[in-house]
Amino acid sequence: MRRVLLFIPVLLAVTLGIVLFAGIGKDPNKLESALIGKPVPEFVLADLHNPEVQLGPEVFRGQVSLLNVWGTWCPACRDEHGDLVWLAEQQGIRIVGLNYKDERELALQWLDRLGDPYQVSLYDPRGELGFDLGVYGAPETYVIDPDGIVRYRHVGVVNEKVWREDLEPVVLKFREDS
Amino acid sequence: MYPELGQFALILALLLAVLLSVVPLVGAITGRDNLQAFARPLATGQFVFIALAFALLTQAFLVDDFSVAYVANNSNSLLPWYYKFSAVWGGHEGSLLLWILMLAGWTLAVAVFSRRLPTVMVSQVLSVLGMVSVGFLLFIVLTSNPFDRLLPNVPADGADLNPLLQDFGLIVHPPMLYMGYVGFSVAFAFAIAALINGRLDAAWARWSRPWTTVAWSFLSVGIALGSWWAYYELGWGGWWFWDPVENASLLPWLAGTALMHSLAVTEKRGVFKSWTVLLAIVTFALSLLGTFLVRSGVLTSVHAFASDPTRGAFLLGLLAFTIVSSLTLYAFRAPVVHARSSYGGLSREIFLLLNNVLLVAATLLVLVGTLYPLVLDYLDMGRLSIGEPFFNLTFSPLAVAVGLLLGAGIFSRWKKTDGGWLARQLLWPAATSLVITAAALSYYGSFTPWAFAGLLSATWVTVATLRDLWLKSSSKKGRWHGLRRQSRSYYGMVLGHLGLALTMAGATVVSNYGVERDVRMAPGDTAEIGELRFYFAEIGSRQGANFTATYGRFEISSDGEPIATLFPEKRQYVVQRNMMTEAGIDAGLFRDLFVALGEEVSGDAWAVRLQYKPLIRWLWLGALFMAAGGFLAIADRRYRIRDKVAVSEPAAPSASNPAATAGTREVLS
After folding, report:
1. Which of B313, B328, B373 is the closest to A10 by Cβ?
2. Is the minimum CB–CB distance between A154 and chain B shorter than 8 Å?
3. Could you report the per-residue pLDDT of B604-632, keeping only the tens digit for each?
4. In which domain, by residue range, is B595 found?
5. Closest CA–CA distance from residue B36 to any residue of chain A (Å)
C-alpha cells in the first residue's frame, strides 16, 4: 500500500507538465481578453482627483481612448509613465487611467511628480473594475472605441515600439470608423 | 571558419555524451570493467569539446564576427571588451551553452574527485550526467545553435547587448546561478544511481553531501548577486520582486536547503532515505523547471526573453522525460520499510524533519504563486493577479518559523532529547534575543509585529548558534584549544546559520524601516529624510563608451556634516536607444543612501527618488556567509579520510553506525 503513495510525485509532475504544455506558445504579453468586442463592464468609480465625482462607462464615449491600468506599487508602471506622457502630450492620445489597488494620496503624488497623462482618472482601490476586466497584473492597456467597446488588450509596458506596432494601428482604425 | 569548428565541436561533444550515457551504464549492469573504464575519458572528452565550442563563441564575440547571428544580435563593436565577453551568455543560445559547459564541468569534477568511490557507482553517476547532457546538447544543436551564420548579408555592426545586462553584476550572476542549478545534477545523478542499483545507504548520502553543499553555495551567491544587481541596476531600489524568474532560482534553493539537511540525517542516522532521494530528484527537477520558465517565455518577467514555441516544447519534453522517468524509477525502487533506528519526540531527527516540512511548504508556496496564473489560465477560470502581497504574507511566517525552530534544533541531540534540559538550554538565548530585539526596535523607533517577529527570529538564531559554539568549545585546555577542536563542517554550519540570521535581519529591517521618498527637485533644491539632507547641486552630462548620460550631483549631509556626494545618471544607449537609470548609491554596512533620477518633469525640475535603506547590505552579506559556510563544510577532513574507508566499507558499514547497516538491508524489501 505504501508503494502506491510513492507514485504521487510522478502524478503531480505529469499534471504540472500538462498545464505547462498548454502555456507554451502563448505570448503572455498578448493575453486575449474575453472582453474583446464587448462593452467595458459597468462600473461606478470615484474620480481620482475628486472623490465626490462618480464616473461610469460613459467616460469612454465619443472618442477612441486608451485605458491604462496602473498603480504606484508597480515598478513597470513607472517605466512606461514617460511614454504615456509622451503619447498624451505629443501624440494627442486620450488616455483614461485606472488607478488599480492603490492609495489615493500616493497616486496623486505620483501624477504630480511625473506628470499626468490621463484625461480622466478612475480610482479603483479594491480592484473592482480591474476584476471585471480580468486584469492580469499592472500595467495593462486597453484600446476602447468611441462606443465603449473593448478592441485590444496589451499586457505589460507600453513604449514607443509597442505603440507603433500594436496600439497605434488599432487606434487609427477605430478613429477612422467613427 | 571558426564558428563552423565550434558547431562541429558541439556535435562531437553530443556524440561523446551519447556514448557516456550508454557505455559505462551497460558496463556497470553487466559487470564489464572494460566498458566502465570508458566513463572518465568520455567525461573528459565531452568537457574538452564543449569548452572548445565555448571558447570559439567567445572568440567570435571578441573579434566582432557579426556574420554569426548570435553575435550580431547581442554585441556591438562599441561594446567594451569585458561586456563582449559577458555577452557570450547575454542571450538564449549562449546562456544555454554556458549551462552545458557547467554541466560538463561538474561531470568532469565528479570524474576527477571520485577516485575513492566504487567503480560501479562512478560509472552510473557519470552515465546519468551524460544523459542530462545529451538532452541539453540536442536542444542546443537542434533548436538553439549559437553558431548560425548570417550569410551572405553580414550586418555592418551588431544590435548591441541589452543595456540592462551591461554591468558587472551580470558578468558574474549567470555563471554563479548556473553553477548552482547545474550542480544539483550531481546530487540527482547520485540519487538515480542509488535507485538503479538499490543501494540507498549512509555511504550514498555521504557521497552526495559535499556536491549538494557546493551547488547550494554557488546558488546562494548567484541569487544574492541577482538581488544586488536588481537593487542597483533596475533603478527602483527594490531587492526582490517575486518575479517568476527570481522565484525560479529560489525554488531549487529552498528544496536544496531541505536536501542538505535531510542528507545529514540520512548520513548520520540512516533514516528519511526515501524522502532524501525524492528531494534530490525534486531539487534538480526544480532547477530544470527554472530553466524552462526562463527559456520558454511562458511567464511574463523583467527578464524578457523571446517566446519561441519550438524551444518551449522541446525543453518541456526534455523536462518531462527527465522528471517523469526519474520519479517513476523512484516510485518503483524507493525503500518503503521503516528504518529500524528509532527517535523520540524531541530528537534532532524531528527538528530536521520539521525544518524539511517548512522548507518544502515554502517551496510549494512559491511554486504555486509562480505558476498560479498559468494554472488558472489553463482551467479557464479567469485571471487574478498574484504579487508581492501574497508572497510577503505567506512566505514571511514560514521564514520566521524556520528561524525559531533552528535555534531550538541546534541544541537537540540525535535519538532523544530531554525536554526539560532543552528548555533550560533555551532559556538564556530566549531572554537575550528578546532584549536585543527590543533594543533594536527602540533604536529604529517603532514597533510592528513583523519587524518584531523577523528580528526576534534572526537574533534567536544568532544567539543560539553562538551559545552552542561556546558550550561545545569549552575545554580544560582553554577556550582556544576548544575552538580549534571543532570540525570545519561544524564551523560551516555555524557560518551558514549566522548567514541566514544576517539575511533575515537585513530583510526585516529594510522592509520595515526603509524610507522611500519620491520628490520633485530642481538644481538648488533640498529634500530631507529624517536628519539627512539631500541637496541637488547641479545637473550635467557626460559621454560614455556607448551611451550618453545626464547626471545629477547630490550632496548629502546630516546635521550639517557632509556624508556623501552621489551622481545618479540617466543613460541613453546609442544603438538600442534605451534609457537606463543608474542610481547613485552611498553604501554602508548599516545603511545605504540611494538617489535615482527619474523623468524630467518640467523646465529643469526632475522626479527624484530618495531612499534610506538600513541594513540592506546584510541581505547579501548573509548569503556570502552561507556560501562560505558551505565551502568550509566540504573542506572538512572527514570527507578525505572517510572516503578512503568508503572503498572497502559500503558492503559493511562501520559498527558505530548501526542505522547504516540496517539501511543496506532494508533496501528493496
Report:
1. B328
2. no
3. 788 888 999 999 999 999 999 999 999 99
4. 533-617
5. 31
Task: Name the grid cell of A132.
Answer: 471585471
Please list the residues that pair with B127 across neighbouring strands. Answer: none
B380 pLDDT higher than 70 = no
Please give the CATH number for the structural domain made up of A30-177: 3.40.30.10
**Segment B502-555, tens digit of pLDDT:** 999 999 999 999 998 888 888 999 999 888 999 999 998 898 877 888 899 999
Residues B246, B226 contacting (CB under 8 angstroms) = yes
Decide: B324 and A161 in contact? Cβ < 8 Å.
no
Average model confidence (pLDDT) across chain B: 86
Sign for the pseudo-dihedral over CA of B501, B504, B507, B511: negative
Q: Quick check: is B543 in a domain?
A: yes
- Domains contained in chain B, number: 1
Q: Please state at what angle helix B244-269 crosses helix B348-379, rounded to 10 degrees.
A: 150
Predicted ipTM > 0.85: no
Asked whether the predicted pLDDT for residue B7 surpasses 70, the reply is yes
Residues of chain B with Cβ-Cβ distance to A110 below 8 Å are 518
Q: Using the beta-carbon criterion (under 8 Å), do B331 and A3 form an inter-chain contact? A: yes
For chain A, domain boundaries: 30-177
In tens, the pLDDT along B49-68 reads: 999 999 999 999 999 999 99
A29 and B300 within 8 Å at the Cβ level: the answer is yes
Within 334-363 of B, beta carbons closer than 8 Å to A belong to 334, 336
Q: For the residues B563-582, what does the mean pLDDT come to?
A: 81
Most confident of the ranges A16-30, A138-152, B287-301 = A138-152
Q: Give the number of other Cβ atoms within 10 Å of residue B125's Cβ.
A: 30
Query: How many Cβ pairs within 8 Å bridge chains A and B?
Result: 120
On whether any CB of chain A is under 8 Å from the CB of B323, the answer is yes
- Give the strand pairing for B532-543 and A65-70: unpaired
Q: Does A115 touch chain B (CB under 8 A)?
A: yes
User: B316 lies in a domain?
Assistant: no
B427 lies in some domain: no
> Does some domain include residue B573?
yes
